[in-house]
Prior knowledge:
- This protein is mostly helical.
- It has 2 domains: 5-69, Arc Repressor Mutant, subunit A; 79-222, Orthogonal Bundle (Tetracycline Repressor, domain 2), CATH 1.10.357.
- It has 11 helices and no strands.
- The chain has helices spanning 5-15, 18-47, 50-56, 61-68, 71-91, 100-117, 119-130, 142-162, 172-188, 190-197, 204-222.
- The mean pLDDT is 91.
Amino acid sequence: MAASPGRKAATAQRAGMPGVREKAAKATRDSILKAAIKVFAKHGYDGGSVEKISHAAQSYDRMIYYYFGSKEGLFIEVLEETYRRFNEAESELVTDPAQPLASLKVVVGFMWRYYQKHPEFISLLNTENLHRGAHIAKSLRARDYSSDAIAVLARVLKSGAAQSVFRKDVAARDVYLMIASMGYFYLSNRYTLSAFLGEALESPAALAHWEEFLVDAVLRTVARN
């Protein structure tokens, strides 16, 4: 049976090998963070115990306290990591300043599909909102991540306004909130809405329709005429 990341780190630390020790420590930390994302997404903050996380990471409880200080410290880093991953994926988008209309469609489509592909993102944010943002408020990096996310949209809107395609009085922050709310709300409430409306909102046809509606709503909002 292969040794777990936590055991590898402990062995490397005892061996005192600089390069191996650092790599093993990073592997352990990354393993815990990865496991924590899954556990917190499934069980929430209150149900996501340190024991469940260390078991999922094949590590030890003490390693969580060593690397993250506390369960709350780990949860804060989980939230930061989910935002970091979103920003990293968004930074890889290919947009053309000469084609602001097409570029805006790319950004809207990206956000909508990212929510679908990463349900843990929605679950974790739902959990944090139940806690009234008590944990993310302690993050020193949350605002940096939001600035990066809005910056991508701001560049697209600026190029569109310069070409007289988009209005000049629309803030990127407002458009971002519009896209996020319409996409996030639909997906986070799809089960209750499906029962309430008597429609299968998770069907491929329904998801495709909402994406078209979302894109159209955003374009109508920012269009100059």
